[in-house]
Specification:
The structure holds 2 protein chains of 2 kinds.
Chain A (H helix, E strand, L loop, with lengths): L7 E4 L5 E4 L5 E6 L4 H17 L4 E6 L5 H8 L5 E3 L4 H6 L3 E2 L1 E5 L5 E6 L1 E2 H15 L14 E2 L2 E2 L5 H10 L9 E4 L5 H7 L13 H8 L9 E5 L4 E4 H11 L6 H11 L6 H6 L5 E7 L2 H4 L14 H16 L22 E3 L10 H4 L8 E15 L6 H10 L14 E7 L1 H7 L7 H12 L10 H7 L19 E5 L7 E9 L8 E4 L4
Parallel strand pairs in A: 3-4, 4-5, 15-16, 18-19
Antiparallel strand pairs in A: 1-2, 3-7, 6-11, 7-8, 9-10, 13-14, 15-17, 17-20, 17-21, 18-20
Chain B lengths: L1 E4 L22 E6 L5 H15 L4 E6 L9 H10 L2 E5 L3
Parallel strand pairs in B: 2-3, 2-4
Classes of the chains: A alpha+beta, B alpha/beta.
Chain lengths: ~525, ~90
């Protein structure tokens, strides 16, 4: 039992204000007009008021707004009936059902409390008050009353209402600055005007929406997940949740977004460079593990395109955090010559079940049952690779390789640049037609078919600097990629269609970006 | 009235004002090379031109290790503490 009830100041039907605590013992009952059990209890409450009203403040706290008066008239009630149509007092006192009875001493400390109508509870209450006040108990025909009736849910627990109450309550977990949007302003236009948007409309991050989003993690809303360049803004769980709401995420997507923010803000990934570069890079997210199914991600038909809420909004939420918390906006720190649509969102799940190979996250050292997000910095893609004729593994591997020839430009070789190859199921079947065809076989075939020994080896600027820090694996002379390490391979797509896809990376290494994997915290 | 929560890092509640201009060039000019190709050549040329025009102004060169990442904090502090102006060779 609480030793202290929250104070309130409510108005009765005559317009008088009643405060709690006051200097008298109190009998307070929360009621609703349309609750059968509250109607059963009403004559008892009136009888208690008639008997003890001289020494005990008997008050009803009613949730039915204008209908409160119906309740009062129906039962000819004479005690004050207080209006709690905002349900704030019900929320503060944390009741579950109505009728909810509190019998309290003059300090406002509960002596007893109960909910619903268990006849014996009310009989005991009547005797207790009589003893306490030394006033005679009222005559009540207890046998005519039901032995037991359950209460009705308090209105404040309605999901839409509860989150709003939580968001506004004292001690609520929200710390972000609240922005009042005038009633004449269009909320969506306002958000565009403030520069929060990536160009598409946003979901207004009202406090109750953010509270609902925060329910998806046990982490404290003020935990700092990362410091986001260029402004070094603090990405707290709350700030990430706000941007996730704006992106259109469901609460269950939040853990993925949190892991993604953590990943891109590492020195390795270098989100600052990725965002700023005139080459127009964007983070491409690949999700592995049980979470794919749990939150309904798409790894099959149309996985790299539109139509799936999880894919679309998780990628978008990450971009909005970088934009809003980090301060990287197009034309500001972001200087892409052209950019690409991946800057809106690019996130998909790997079709692990269709892959003959270890899943991406397993390759990268995680357990198969871990849920993981891996982020690659990509400047282009997805680019279509068509092969509807090859029947032999090496043939289709050759096509996939030649499909990567265009990374940056067909003229450029020896690139310390990542490529992310997404092999479709039909191409997987062809690759495996003559037995197991490993990823390394595929990588070697890719380097072989894209090698141009007599090619112009010049690579300018940043790319030149990184060639020296490249992997030491033996590669063909004039190979497209400076190492097989730069060729990343995953499986996705529908069962119909001999069309794979590839993403083209940015500069890999110390002056560029190295792909990062983070485990998704599902606690 | 709708209330929304601020999605930004909230670092700009008021508009940032630019520093007051004194009307004359004196003190220390920092020249920041951010390691972009030929940034050093640009700054060499600028240094020479400024020397000719305003010989009694001191110049100090600074070097960011890479253009692709934010300026390391110690370097940022050093520039802030030792210079009155800063010219950065930004792009290639």
């Amino acid at each position: 039992m609480d030793t202290k009830q929250q104070k309130f100041s409510l108005i009765d039907m005559m317009g008088n204000t009643h405060n709690f605590p006051n200097t008298q013992p109190s009998l307070i009952c929360f009621v609703k007009e349309d609750c059968d059990t509250c109607n059963t209890a009403a004559p008892v409450l009136e009888a208690l008021h008639q008997a003890y009203g001289g020494k005990v403040k008997v008050l009803l706290i009613a949730q039915s707004g204008e209908a409160n008066s119906k309740y009062v008239v129906r039962h000819a009630l004479t005690m004050p009936t207080l209006n709690d149509c905002s349900y704030k007092t019900a929320f503060d006192w944390d009741i579950e059902a109505v009728p909810s009875v509190f019998w309290m001493d003059e300090n406002g400390t509960p002596i007893s409390q109960f909910e619903g109508f268990i006849r014996s509870d009310w009989e005991v209450l009547t005797r207790d008050i009589s003893k306490y006040t030394a006033l005679p108990a009222p005559v009540i025909e207890w046998n005519e009353l039901p032995t037991w009736r359950p209460g009705c849910g308090s209105n404040h627990l309605d999901p839409g209402i509860y989150d709003k109450l939580r968001a506004d309550a004292e001690g609520n977990p929200l710390r972000a600055r609240r922005i009042d949007i005038g009633s004449d302003d269009d909320v969506v236009e306002f958000m565009f005007d403030q520069g929060f948007s990536d160009g598409l409309p946003l979901v207004p991050p009202t406090p109750d929406r953010v509270i609902r989003m925060l329910s998806a993690t046990r982490r404290s809303p003020q935990d700092v997940v990362a410091t986001v360049p260029p402004n070094m803004g603090q990405a707290t769980i709350e700030k990430i949740a706000i941007n996730a709401v704006m992106a259109g995420c469901k609460p269950e997507y939040l853990p993925v977004v949190i892991a993604a923010v953590e990943a891109v803000c590492t020195d390795e990934f270098n989100i600052h460079g990725v965002t700023a570069t005139t080459m127009g890079a964007a983070p491409v997210m690949v999700v592995n593990g049980p979470i794919r199914e749990k939150i309904g991600m798409n790894m099959k038909l149309g996985a790299l395109g539109a139509g799936n809420r999880a894919n679309a909004t998780i990628g978008r939420a990450l971009r909005l955090v970088v934009r809003n918390v980090g301060g990287a906006s197009t034309g500001g720190v972001e200087r892409s010559t052209l950019g690409n649509p991946m800057k809106f969102t690019m996130c998909f799940a790997e079709f692990e079940e269709r892959s003959p190979w270890p899943a991406l996250h397993v390759e990268r050292g995680f357990k198969p049952e871990d849920s993981v997000v891996t982020i690659f910095a990509m400047t282009g893609g997805p680019v279509h690779i068509v092969d509807q004729t090859s029947r032999a593994p090496d043939q289709v591997a050759e096509t996939l390789g030649l499909g990567l020839e265009g990374v940056f430009s067909p003229k450029m070789q020896n690139l310390p640049v990542d490529a992310l190859l997404v092999v479709c199921p039909e191409h997987i079947d062809t690759l495996m037609r003559e037995g197991y065809y490993s990823k390394n076989q595929l990588r070697n075939q890719i380097l072989k078919v894209t090698a141009k020994p007599a090619a112009n080896q010049s690579v300018d600027g940043a790319l030149r600097a990184d060639k020296s820090s490249v992997g030491i694996k033996k590669i063909p002379e004039g190979a497209k990629f400076a190492s097989t390490d730069y060729i990343h391979i995953v499986v996705a797509g529908s069962d119909a269609g001999k069309f794979s896809s590839a993403f083209h990376g940015w500069v890999t290494g110390a002056t560029g970006s190295i792909s990062v994997s983070k485990k998704i915290d599902l606690d | 009235m709708t209330v929304i929560l601020d999605p930004t890092d909230e670092h700009s509640p008021v508009e940032r004002q630019i520093a007051k201009r004194s009307g004359e060039l004196k003190g220390v000019i920092g020249l920041l090379d951010i390691s972009k190709p030929r940034g050093n050549i640009l700054l060499d040329e600028l240094e020479s031109l400024i020397n000719k025009k305003v010989p009694n102004v001191l110049m100090r060169r600074f070097l960011k290790p890479t253009f692709a990442k934010p300026c390391p904090d110690p370097l940022r502090r050093e520039i802030g503490e030792s210079c009155d102006y800063l010219i950065e060779a930004l792009a290639d």
